[in-house]
# Entry
Amino acid sequence: MTRPRAARRPGPSASSVANWGLAIVAAMAVNAHTAAVGRSDYFAKVRTTLDNLIRHGRDRYGKTQSPLFAAILTEDTLTCPEDPPTYALDPLRLDPGRYQNRRGPGGGNLAYDQATLRCLNLMTQITGDAAYREAALDALRWLLNHTDNGHGLPVLGGHTYWHFYTEAMSHQGPHHELWNWPMAWELWWSADADKTRRYADRVWKWHVVDKTTGETNRHGDGKRGWAFTYSDATFISLWSFVG
# Structure
C-alpha cells in the first residue's frame, strides 16, 4: 500500500482545523477591522505577549542562535535557563525521566507551539504587521532545515526537543511522537513546501510499520508496537494536507 497523493496542490486555505490559540485570538478580534479592536484590553495583552515572545522568547543561547521559541521562560527575567527553577511537586522533580523531554527545559519544541504559530499569523492578518507571521515561518523553516532526529524527521514531539545550549536533540531521541492537537500545516507549507512534503513522506516511512494494513508506531522507529490513534489522526492530517 502506497500513500495516495491528491492531484491538487495545497495552499494556505487547505486546512480549516480550529485550535485553541486561533479560537482565542479570533474571539478577541471579531471586529478586527474596526478601531475598537485596537483598544481592546484583551487584544493589547495578546499583542504584548507575542511581542515579548519574539523579542525575548527565541533561541539566543549557545554558539548558534535560532528563531525557535523557548519552551520555558522565567517570569522575572524572560530568559530560558538550562536548569529552570522548580517547585516541590513539579513533575520535573518527581519524574524527570518522563517530563524532562515533555517540558523542554533549556530548549524549544515546536510541536507544542502550533497554536502560538497560528496566533502569530492571525496577528499579522489583523494588524498588517508582517513581523508576526515571519516569526512563525522563520521558526518552522529553521526546524525543517537544521534539525534531524537521525531518521530524517525534524526534532519535536512528545519525547524529544531541540536543546538550545547543547544545540542538539535531547537525550530521549530519536522518538518522533506527534499528539492529537491540530497542527498548523498551512504555515509549515508556507515556510518550506518541499521540506514539508518530505516530512510527510518520512512520517509514512518511519511511522507506518505495515504499508499493507496501515499499522503504525507512534514513536516512529520503524518497529511494531506503540500504536496510538491520536497520533494516527495527526499523521493523516499531514498526508491529507500535502496530498
In short: Confidence is low (pLDDT under 50) at residues 6-35. Residues 34 and 42 are 15 Å apart (CA to CA). The first helix runs from residue 20 to 28. The chain is about 45% helix and 5% strand.
